[in-house]
Structures are given as C-alpha cells and as structure tokens.
C-alpha cells in the first residue's frame, strides 16, 4: 500500500474518491471497439486503488463501482465477477506472486470465462453462441483493463523517477519488456479488428482472434522476458551482498545466458568475484598477521605484554572461581645490554631467540612465557600447589642460563635475575602482582644477580626509595648537582704529586652527599653513566687546563671510564672533541679502564686503545689483579700504568698471599716497562714496603683523601702539607 492513512488523511480520501468516481464513469461510458461489442474500463481505476490502497480499500471500491453498474444495467453477475477479479489481483499484488497480466489471463481462462458461460447459458437461458460471445467479451475486457492499469502504473513510476528525482523507484526489466511487447501486439490486433469492422457472424471469430493473440503474446512475452531478464534477475540476486558472501565463502550459483552480452556481463562479475575473493583472502591473512603481531613479540614470537596481561587476568578470574593459585615471575637478563652494544643487535637478537626457546622448553603446557620488551620476560605459573613448587621452577630457570649459548660460532655466558609474586601471599590484582614481581627482581639484581627472590613487604619501601633516587639522578646533571673531587698520586721517590684522579661526588639539596657506591651502580643500570661519564671527562680536562693556565706546572689528570662508555662507537671522537674544547694537551689526560672491559671484546679494545695512544692519551689498568689477568693482553695492549687494587695493599703486612701478589705485580710492571701505582695506601708500613719493592706511585689516604679542586690545588703546588694522617 503506497498511501498512509494516518499521514495523508485528506490526500488519502480525496484520491480514493476520485479514482472511485473515475471507475464509475469508466463503466458508464461504454466504448465500442468492435461492432456489436461494448468495452467498459471502470476496472482500471479500481485496480489502481488496489495498488495504492491495498486489498481492503480496493474491495470496497469494487463493490461501489460494480453496484453502480448493476444499478445502471441490471447486471448482478457482473458485480460478483469483477469483484472476484479485483480481490484476485489485490492478493497477487500484496503477495507479489508474479506477473499480474499473466495471472489475470489465467483467472479469466480458468474461472471468469467458464463462470460467465455457465451463468448466461444455464441460469439466464442464453444460447451457447451468445454465452461464448459474452464470456469472450468479458475476458478480453478484463485482461485489457489489467494491462492498461499496469501500463498506467509503469507510467506513474517512470514519471516520478525523472520528474521528482525519486531514484529509489525502480522497475524490473522483465516488466518493461513484457508490457512493451504485449502492448504492441494487443493494440495492433485490437485496432486491426476495429478497422476491419467485421460482420455480426464474425464477432466470435474476431474476439477469439484477440483472445488467442493475447494468450499467444503472453506466452511469447513471458518466454522472451525469461530469456532476457531471468539471468539478470538471478545475477542481481547472487550479487546482492556479494562482498559479504565472498568474505563468508558462501556458495554462489552464477547463471548463464544465451544472449552473448548478458553472458559476458555474468562472466565479468564472476571474474571480479574471483579477484575479490583472492584480495579478501590476502586482506584476511594480513589482518590475521596483524592480530598475531598485536599479541606477540615480533622477534621471539612469544606472547607480548598485552597478551600476557589478558592471560594473567583470565587466570586470576579462574583463581577466584576454583580457588587455584598462581605465580608471576619477572625475569631480567643480567648485562644483556653490554652484549648487545658490544657485539651488535643481530647477535643480541639471536641470543634472545635462543633464550626464548629454552624458556618455552622448560615450562609446563599451561604455563605462559612472554617477552615484555628488551631483555625482560614474564612467566605465569598456573595451578601451583605451594611455594616450593615455584622455587624449583625458578631454580631450574636460573640453572638453564648456566649453559653457554653458541651464537654464530661464538660462546656467550649470561645469567638472569628473577622476582616472584604469588597470588596467595601477594594478592590477586593484576597490576599489583606484576609490580611486586618487578620489585623482587630488582632486589635480586642488587643481591648479586643470577638468582631469584620472592617478594617481601620490606622490599616495597626500598623499591620506592630506589625509584626516587633514580629520578633525582636523572635531574642531577641538569641541576648541576655533581662535583669532582681529586685525589693526588704521589711519586714514591720524590713524594711530589705527579697526577690526580678525578672522582665524582653527588651533592643533592635534599639528600646531601650521596655515596658513589650508592648511585654509580644505579647510573650503570639506567644507562645514565654515559652522560655522567662524559661530564666527568669534560670537567676534569677543563679543571686541569685551568690549573695550567694559572701558571702551575702541568700534571696528568686520570678519569675512570665505565664499560658502557668504553663500548660507545664514538668514544675516541668524543675524547678528541673534549680535549679540543678544553684546550688540554692529550699527554696530560689519563684514562683508567678495568680488566672486565678488556676481556669483553679483545679485538675492539685493542683498536680503541691503539687510537687513544695515537692521540697521546695515557691509559692505566685499574684494579689490576682482581679480574682475569692475562700476560697476553698486557703484552699486546697499549697500556702505560698498572694500578694495584686496594684490597691487596690493605693486608700487605699480614697476608703472605697479598704480599706475594703485590710483589709479583710490581716485578711484572718493571719487566714490561710499565708504571705501577698502588691504591689504598693508608699506613707508613704499607708505604715503606711499596717503596722497597720499587713501586712507582702511591695513592691513598696516607697522603690525602679525595678533596675539592681548591684544596687539591693547594696540595699540588705546596701551599698545604700533603700528609692527611
């Protein structure tokens, strides 16, 4: 039904009345199309009412029009017959069963015409010939009315499409072709019959010819419409929601057509569908890969932080339901950054991949291991029974790292520090468990690394303090809180200062003087040691140049280089730039490195030391004897000075082993033509022993503790007594 009774009340009633009146007039004004035969066209307008208003209103209009016709011509059977036809057509329109003209023809052939013949022949006692004439007349009249009504409807739709820009209105191609083809044949037959204007005895033949023409035309038009429009209708049906069908891999039954152009169109759609299917598959695969990458680490293919958090959240929900317990392990690889920086990221990535494989191999099926970034991993242990079970797993993981890793033919040893939080002790909140495991991991690192610790309440305060200290350390450079103290190095023969060692101190406004033992390890772990070390080097060089500019005799200033500084690719360039910036000659700079730095990368160390020696910078080996000392690297590397570690000097008079070690180092230095400096000298007994053995330089509290630059200047140039004790 086109019109809404509620929304268009006046228009609704007005058009209904107009069409009803036109229906009455159509039945009142007979048109003589054939000699002796009258055609009435009231049904056209009632059929229009059926389309616009539906079954109820068309039935009502049919009764009015047919009743008025009965009043004019006393045709009671016409009322019944035409009302039946209108109801039949209205039901077809409502249910959209098929072609109205074709079905109306079926109505007249099977119901309307037989019923008319029966009524006029048996009830009204007309002869058979006249009954057939009347039946044919009514059948042709009824079919012609339906055809004209259908033609008017098509005209109204076409007019609205173009005139009112109602692009949502569409007409099936089969309806257009069917109507045009049928109309041409019917109207030509009709007008030919009118033109011939046959005699009375020819009326039956004329009407029969028209009816046969209509039926033949219907059949031909239907066949013609099917050949042209069926494949198109089928194609339209199959391509409706085509992307969704392709995406869901639904079966598509492609039609075929005997008409070349239509068949080509279908084949084009089929080819396009195939391409779309392939493209959708590629897109789907790409989406699957993106979803996988969104939940997994790109390098190791382990679950990432987001997926681990979901797994942990699900495990916590399950824990709440069934009372099971779980543990979270936080793993951090010890000194992995040093390997990465020394040997390159390719080696580091391969090492991470091998570590990941080992971790997966040792865990249970329901356990989850993820890489949360860098050299950090999280492990979820579900359904744990007790703390001992978790300890065994953590111990197994630590032992797993004791086996060396072979990467590109080179051996690597690495350890891990593990922090553990257990739901039964540390709560069942996701963020809280992760935080506590993280805190325990840092505590394990502070206790020497290569171990595991369970979270304990007292750790939390320590972690907060450590976090605050790291934040303050980050701001210390900007706020100029660092200062350098200098400890003299004295010639053992002349007791004169020939060098000073620059030692950093941190004077924080809130914390006061912070011990280097407290903030240096933190700076190394956080990577802040690189900018801090660069500041120390620049400040020491500028201070030494300032003393020289004041007219004092030049001496060397020694600066400690951390392992992280030493592996920087641009180390030599930076040192050169600082020397240029400060104006200090390279011969008055000494760099102190440890044995640990040398053995990390022998080839790289040799190259760097060679470049430094070419610049004229002195190099000393600090804490000699505490590492993996090797005569080979002492022979091949460009080293100027050996510094005996204070731990050997401290018990030199009481410990025979320490005495032997110190004596050996001094003799070794002499034989290799190296300068030897003893650190940590605090007593005259120690000093006397070292002098007697031929040690070249003395450094320690016996002469002076580390002092600010102003006091050191007074010591260097004789304005203050050297001995501090």
Task: Report on the architecture of this protein.
The chain is α/β, with parallel strands linked by helices and 725 residues long. Helices cover 62% and strands 14% of the residues. The protein is rod-shaped, with a radius of gyration of 52 Å. It has 28 helices and 18 strands. About 1% of the residues have low confidence. The chain has four domains: 231 residues, no CATH class; 55 residues, no CATH class; 151 residues, Alpha-Beta Plaits; 228 residues, EAL domain (TIM Barrel).
Keywords:
single chain, 725 residues, alpha/beta, Alpha-Beta Plaits, 4 domains, eight-stranded mixed β-barrel, five-stranded mixed sheet, 28 helices, 18 strands, 62% helix, 14% strand, transmembrane helix, Biofilm_reg_signaling, EAL_sf
């Amino acid at each position: 039904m086109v019109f809404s009774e509620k929304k268009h009340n006046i228009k609704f009633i007005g058009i209904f009345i107009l069409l009803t009146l036109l229906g009455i007039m159509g039945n009142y004004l007979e048109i003589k199309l054939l000699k002796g035969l009258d055609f009435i066209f009231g049904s056209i307008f009632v059929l229009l009412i059926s389309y616009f208003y539906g079954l109820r209103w068309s039935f009502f209009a049919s009764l009015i029009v047919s009743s008025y016709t009965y009043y004019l011509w006393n045709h009671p059977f016409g009322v019944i017959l035409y009302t039946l036809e209108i109801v039949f057509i209205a039901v077809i329109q409502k249910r959209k069963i098929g072609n109205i003209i074709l079905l109306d023809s079926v109505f007249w052939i099977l119901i309307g015409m037989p019923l008319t013949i029966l009524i006029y022949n048996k009830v009204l006692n007309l002869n058979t010939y006249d009954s057939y004439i009347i039946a044919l007349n009514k059948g042709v009249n009824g079919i012609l009315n339906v055809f004209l009504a259908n033609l008017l409807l098509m005209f109204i739709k076409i007019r609205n499409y173009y005139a009112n820009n109602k692009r949502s209105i569409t007409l099936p191609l089969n309806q257009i072709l069917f109507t045009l083809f049928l109309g041409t044949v019917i109207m030509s037959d009709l007008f030919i019959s009118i033109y011939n204007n046959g005699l009375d005895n020819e009326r039956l033949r004329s009407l029969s010819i028209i009816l046969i023409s209509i039926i033949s035309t219907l059949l031909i038009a239907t066949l013609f419409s099917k050949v042209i429009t069926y494949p198109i209708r089928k194609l339209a049906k199959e391509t409706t929601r085509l992307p969704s069908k392709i995406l869901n891999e639904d079966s598509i039954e492609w039609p075929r057509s005997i008409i070349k152009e239509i068949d080509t169109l279908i084949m084009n759609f089929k080819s396009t569908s195939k391409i779309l299917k392939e493209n959708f598959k590629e897109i789907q695969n790409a989406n699957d890969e993106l979803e996988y990458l969104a939940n997994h680490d790109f390098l190791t293919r382990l679950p990432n932080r987001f997926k681990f958090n979901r797994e942990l959240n699900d495990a916590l929900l399950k824990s709440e339901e069934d009372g099971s317990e779980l543990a979270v392990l936080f793993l951090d690889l010890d000194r992995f950054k040093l390997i990465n920086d020394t040997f390159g990221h390719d080696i580091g990535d391969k090492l991470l991949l091998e570590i990941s494989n080992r971790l997966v191999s040792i865990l249970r099926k329901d356990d989850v291991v993820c890489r949360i970034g860098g050299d950090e991993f999280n492990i979820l242990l579900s359904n744990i029974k007790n703390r001992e079970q978790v300890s065994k797993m953590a111990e197994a993981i630590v032992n797993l790292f004791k086996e060396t890793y072979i990467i590109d033919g080179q051996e690597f040893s690495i350890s891990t520090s593990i922090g553990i939080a257990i739901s039964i002790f540390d709560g069942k909140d996701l963020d809280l468990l992760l935080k506590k495991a993280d805190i325990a991991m840092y505590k394990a690192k502070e206790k020497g690394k290569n171990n595991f610790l369970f979270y304990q309440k007292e750790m939390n305060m320590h972690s907060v303090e450590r976090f605050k200290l790291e934040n303050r350390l980050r701001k210390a450079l900007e706020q100029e809180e660092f200062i350098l103290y200098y400890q003299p190095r004295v010639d053992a023969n002349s007791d004169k200062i020939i060098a000073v060692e620059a030692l950093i101190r941190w004077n924080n406004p809130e914390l006061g003087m912070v011990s280097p033992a407290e903030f240096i390890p933190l700076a190394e772990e956080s990577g802040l040691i690189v900018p801090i070390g660069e500041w120390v080097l620049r400040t020491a060089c500028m201070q030494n140049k300032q003393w020289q500019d004041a007219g004092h005799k030049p001496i060397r200033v020694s600066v400690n280089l951390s392992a992280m500084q030493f592996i920087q690719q641009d180390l030599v360039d930076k040192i050169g730039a600082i020397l240029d910036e400060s104006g200090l000659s390279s011969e008055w700079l000494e760099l102190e490195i440890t044995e640990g730095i040398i053995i990390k990368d022998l080839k790289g160390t040799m190259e760097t030391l060679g470049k430094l020696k070419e610049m004229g910078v002195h190099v000393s080996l600090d804490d000699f004897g505490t590492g993996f000392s090797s005569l080979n690297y002492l022979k091949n590397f460009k080293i100027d000075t050996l510094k005996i570690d204070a731990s050997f000097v401290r018990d030199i008079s009481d410990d025979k082993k320490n005495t032997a070690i110190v004596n050996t180092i001094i003799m070794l230095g002499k034989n290799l033509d190296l300068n030897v400096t003893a650190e940590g000298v605090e007593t005259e007994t120690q000093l006397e022993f070292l002098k007697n053995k031929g040690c070249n330089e003395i450094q320690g509290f016996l002469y002076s503790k580390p002092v600010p630059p102003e006091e050191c200047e007074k010591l260097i140039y004789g304005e203050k007594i050297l001995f501090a004790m």
